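User: My instructor asked us to take a sequence, write out its structure as tokens, and then describe one feature of it. I'm not sure where to start. Here is the sequence I was given:
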Amino acid sequence: MQVFEKDNGLYLKEPDQLPNDFEITKAIINGDEREIDGISEIVHQKFDKDYFVVRTGVGFLEIFPKDVNKGAALKALTKVLKLNIDETIAMGDRDNDIPMLKIAGKGIAMGNALPDVKKSSEYVTTDNNHSGVGKAIEKFVL
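Assistant: Let's start with the prediction itself. The structure tokens for your sequence are:
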């Protein structure tokens, strides 16, 4: 099913209404945390081979094309800005931040980050409610 919003409201299209060459650009599964926990493994098994499947929030599971992630975005941005990626700093707290944290010159996890995010980072700052971003900037930039 395709769901999209236009000026006049929300539109739904059933699979048989979609063109044969229809490709998923992004899928979002939204629900209660326990519901998402219950289906995450199934979605990963079905789509991990061809897509980037990631929890982007407590109640969100998202599916992207394999090469669409924050790491790829940071790499593209540094090329446009003519910056060395080794001179970048990235901060994050969720699984969707991991590709960005791994490719940045300095990957920093927030104190409230998920365990895998902390493992993928070089440094862990305080959480987002205790000026974690500011403290990291003071430590590594100023």
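For the description part of your assignment, you could build on this observation: The chain has five helices and eight strands. Try explaining in your own words what that tells you about the chain.
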